[in-house]
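Hi all, posting the design record for the shared folder.

TITLE: backbone redesign
STEP: 1 of 1
STRUCTURE INPUT:
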């Protein structure tokens, strides 16, 4: 039996198939739903599934954020959504945005939640309890483990930008460990915010082969062209599409896509915004020096 593709292999295949580096974040807020569903948490699956159906040929991954489901007692809808993505967008990885990070038996339960209950292809983690908080997740062969490194929020400076003894910054230490000792099975990636393109470039320098999940494009103000130029390392084909020769980048947009319209045309509007964002990202490839 042929082994299932690893998370990184699936990313690269989706990138080539869809000529995309765009990830759509699935952060459902019923208070922002289209008017005919506004405030109805029972519609979370329907809302997200409609977004997936409208964008499935444009993306390299989907990133459901678990808190938006759990807050509305909608974990069963999240399970249904993950299964729906696998059915209608086969080969497009699901990144469970959970930001877990614990050790021992508790870490094992979080890993089981991500990879067995939801059958996600990757999960986001906080690395600040060290290597033994990552180990329960890397125990699942082929699954992706994406560590918070240099996040897009202003408060990230409180810790991530601190200088350590020897001069390197904390986020740089995380990147070095992720590219080295923590990446025993080639499963680790990093989260780096689009609002800090210089830091994206620095992380790419320190971790040239790791997948980079880059949130912050769209509603958070990250610049698509600057993000691509900072993080992407590859070759541009004659048709203007890109092909990664090192670690892929996964550029996430959530609210700008999800809430593009408050009308019954919300899914069509989401597709239009996703297409426009993808065009910006791909145009940035042709402007690469």
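Okay, here is what came back for every position:
SEQUENCE:
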């Amino acid at each position: 039996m042929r082994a299932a593709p690893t998370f990184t292999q699936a990313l690269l295949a989706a990138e080539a198939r869809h000529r995309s580096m765009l990830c759509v974040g699935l952060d459902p807020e019923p208070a922002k739903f289209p008017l005919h569903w506004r405030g109805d948490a029972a519609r979370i699956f329907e809302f997200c599934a409609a977004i997936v159906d409208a964008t499935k040929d444009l993306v390299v991954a989907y990133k459901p954020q678990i808190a938006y489901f759990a807050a509305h007692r909608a974990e069963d809808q999240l399970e249904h959504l993950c299964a729906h993505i696998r059915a209608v967008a086969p080969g497009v990885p699901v990144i469970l945005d959970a930001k877990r990070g614990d050790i021992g038996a508790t870490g094992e339960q979080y890993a089981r939640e991500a990879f067995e209950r939801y059958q996600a292809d990757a999960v986001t983690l906080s690395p600040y309890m060290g290597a033994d908080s990552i180990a329960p997740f890397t125990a699942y062969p082929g699954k992706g483990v994406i560590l918070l490194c240099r996040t897009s929020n202003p408060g990230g400076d409180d810790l991530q930008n601190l200088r350590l003894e020897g001069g390197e910054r904390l986020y740089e230490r995380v990147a070095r460990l992720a590219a080295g000792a923590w990446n025993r099975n080639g499963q680790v990636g990093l989260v780096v915010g689009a609002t800090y393109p210089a830091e994206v470039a620095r992380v790419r320098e320190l971790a040239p082969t790791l997948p980079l999940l880059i949130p912050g494009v769209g509603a958070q103000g990250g610049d698509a062209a600057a993000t691509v130029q900072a993080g992407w390392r590859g070759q541009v084909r004659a048709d203007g599409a890109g092909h990664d020769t090192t670690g892929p980048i996964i550029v996430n947009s959530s609210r700008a896509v999800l809430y593009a319209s408050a009308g019954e045309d919300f899914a069509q509007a989401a597709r239009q915004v996703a297409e426009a964002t993808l065009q910006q990202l791909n145009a940035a490839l042709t402007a690469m020096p």
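COMMENT: Residues 3 and 270 are 35 Å apart (CA to CA).
Let me know if anyone wants the other runs.
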